[in-house]
Amino acid sequence: MEHITSRHNPLMGHIRRLAGSAAYRWETGEFLCDSPKLLEEALAYGGSLQTVVCTEQAALPFVPAGVRLVAVPGDVMKSISPAQTPQGVLCVCKMPES
Hints:
The chain is α/β, with parallel strands linked by helices. It is 35% helix and 26% strand.
């Protein structure tokens, strides 16, 4: 698992842009899921996971090989999560082809 402690990391900027801009989501073909429940749903229904970001305390289900796993401190999670009270797990998924 990779550890990131800076809010200025390029991945953190990418996640903030996904959370804040529908145009950016369409441009990149990715979307953001913000909770352990949504991560479990993405895994259960074959979502195309790209990255999972979690706090050190978060309990993660089995994540397949090839998915980038990143641990961040709580203050960084709060800066990237669109929720006022982050649940400690975010994941970036590819949009399905339509």
